[in-house]
Amino acid sequence: MEQLPQCETLILEKHGPALMVTINRPEVRNAMSLQMVAELSTLFNEVEHDDSIRAVVIRGAGGHFCAGGDIKDMAGARGQQAGEGRDDPFYKLNRAFGQMIQQVNESAKVVIAITEGAVMGGGFGLACVSDVAIAGPTAKFGMPETSLGVIPAQIAPFVVERIGLTQARRLALLGLRIDAAEACALGIVHQVAGSEEQLNDMLNQALERVRLCAPNATAETKALLHRVGHEPMAGLLDDAAEKFAAAIRGAEGTEGTMAFMQKREPKWAGSES
User: Fold this and answer.
1) Per-residue pLDDT reduced to its tens digit, 74-111
2) One GO molecular-function annotation for this sequence (predicted)?
3) What digits encode the pLDDT tens for the residues 239-251?
4) How many Å is the maximal CA-CA distance in the chain?
5) What is the CATH topology of the domain spanning 10-210?
6) What share of the chain is helix, strand, coil (3-state, %, to 5)?
7) What is the pTM of this model?
C-alpha cells in the first residue's frame, strides 16, 4: 500500500509490517456508523492485496473500542421510506455491517483487536472475528441488543463460532455485559492486561510473533482453520496435505528449513518485510 487511504472515521498508521487502525469517533464512544463500516470494508479490501502488511491492529480512540451501532444511522433509516424484505433500509444497514465483519473474519492478515472500555454490539462482533484479542482493565463486553428490542442479527453467528452455542445463548438472550476477566474465561479475548503499559507490551509480543511467522503460511493456515466444520474431514485433510506439500517445496518452506538448520532468522522476519 503505497499510500494509506483517506478516512474520516479511522486513523491509519503503518509500523513496519503492521497497520494500526484506530477507530476515531470518541464523542460517541466509537459507535459504528455506515461510513465507518464502508471505510473498514474498503481498507480490508486494499490490505488483502498488500504483501507489505501482515497484521492489522484495531483499537479505539478515547478509551473505548466500539459501543455498537450508531443511533443516528438507525434514526436515518427509520426516516426513509420503508421497503419490503431486502429493500428495507434497515436490512441494507444491517447487512452492510455483516458483510464487513465477514470480510475481517476471512482476511488473510493477522487481525489483532485491542479492546478497552465499551466493546458492545458491533464492537463485540468485531472483537469476535479477530485472530488475537487483548483486553485492557476497563473493557466491558456485551450483546445488549435484546434489551433494546432488537436482535444481534449479524454478530450472533460469529459469537457462536467464537465461544460456542451454550455461552452465546446466555450472553445474547440475557443481554449481558461482562468484564475482561470473564471475557477471557469464555474465550472472547485471549489475554487481559492490568495496565496500559502491559497492554502495549502484549501487543508488541504478538506483533513480534507475526514477524517470525511466514506470511503465506500464516494466510494458508488461517484459511484452513476456517474450513473446519464446514466440509467433510477426509476431503479437507486430503486438500490440506496437498497444500502442505506445496508449502514445504515452496520458497517459504525452503527458507524456513534452511534458517532453522543455520540457526538464523528467516528472511521474512527482516525489517524489509
Assistant:
1) 767 777 777 777 778 889 889 999 999 999 999 999 99
2) catalytic activity
3) 999 999 999 999 9
4) 67
5) 2-enoyl-CoA Hydratase; Chain A, domain 1 (3.90.226)
6) 55, 15, 30
7) 0.94
